[in-house]
Amino acid sequence: MLFCTQHAWGQFNFSSQDRFVRVFEGGGSPNEIRITAPDFGPFNEEVSSPLWFATASQTSQLLAGRIQASCNTGGVRGESAVNVTFTLNAPTMMRVVFGVGGDGSAIPEARLTSSGGVSIRASTGGTTNSVDVTQIFPVGNYTLSVRSIGGTGGAGASLEALPIYSIDWSTIDCGGGQLSGGAYTLNTTIAQTDSTQSDQLTGGTFTITGGFWAITAGPTGLTCDSIDFNNDSAFFDPTDIDAFLSVFSEGPCIPEEATCSDIDFNNDGSLFDPCDIDSFLLVFSEGPCTPCGQ
Fold first, then answer.
1. Helices 274-284 & 238-248, crossing angle to 10 degrees?
2. 9, 166 contact by CB (below 8 A)
3. Are the CB atoms for 136 and 124 separated by under 8 Å?
4. What's the confidence (pLDDT) of residue 174?
5. pLDDT tens digits for range 115-164
6. CA dist., res. 259 & res. 238, Å (int)
7. Alpha-carbon gap, residue 55 to 59, rounded angstroms
């Protein structure tokens, strides 16, 4: 019997938030209107300054599973910025969406960086003005920055920690037995009989097909790897799930002395592809090999 449970995998542990608006005065130090969030719950506010024909505004919202921030400028001497620092204490599947835009004199930018070398950026000063990335981000300290300098422009960012699914197993250990007669002995066990596509249980977007399925190539001809990811000869072992997710997030094999397989589980040539996670979990639950676990 199989139970599939949805968990929020990883949360944002906030360190600081710094929001400020600057208006540059000719020949001198800039005046600043600076706002620092008093706490790290939901935080929405706007600030504007009309000095030197420049205006700026910003909003931000900090939640355990989502960060949203935006800022804009209108004028030639203004800067608006929101900087948020946070920590990921566990490898986290996260969707990162950036969007920037403005006139030719504005310099809007959205950027996510980490102590481990992560760098994702959108800016009208380069070739990219939008980003939409979903991947597993490793443990580390992160900084999200959105800002707009001068002109009329704006930048927005959204970070969302996505759920992951854990598979919990249970078995029926009773049933069956031994039958004997004369020189013959028959050992029996309990099993399922509904291992066909016509005997599916469905609910919402999820489907469960009972019975015992062979690990074979899917409809596109792909051949998935063995679910014994850490190659310890133990099959349907939850440790293989932990090992796969650890290596996928550039961590060690579990246990560390083991030799794990590569993370291209569905062998389509793509590395660090979330579809490999979906394919691995589907085959682990005795489903077929498919391109993306569908």
1. 170
2. no
3. no
4. 56
5. 888 899 888 764 458 889 988 888 899 999 998 887 778 888 999 888 76
6. 16
7. 14
Examine residue 30 and say whether the peptide bond preceding it is cis (omega within 30 degrees of 0): no
What phi and psi, each to the nearest 5 degrees, are found at residue 282?
A: -70, -45
Place of tokens 């599939």: 4
> What's the half-sphere exposure (Cβ side, CA atoms, 13 Å) at 87?
4
Cα distances (Å, whole numbers) of residue 157 to 67, 100, 112 = 8, 9, 9
What is the spatial distance between Cα 123 and Cα 129, in angstroms, rounded to a whole number?
Answer: 5
Do 23 and 73 form a contact (C-beta atoms < 8 A)?
A: no
Question: Which two structure tokens, joined as six digits, stand for 243?
Answer: 């090992």
The C-alpha atoms of residue 288 and residue 294 are separated, in whole angstroms, by: 9
Report residue 48 CA to chain centroid gap.
34
Strands 66-74 and 152-161 come out as: antiparallel
Q: In whole angstroms, what is the distance from residue 160 CA to residue 11 CA?
A: 9
Lookup: tokens for 274: 């979330």
Joined together, the tokens standing for residue 226 give 């063995």
Tell me the sheet residues that pair with 97. Answer: 132, 158
pLDDT at residue 219, rounded to an integer:
46
Smallest CA-to-CA distance from 112 within 63, 77, 177, 158 is with 158
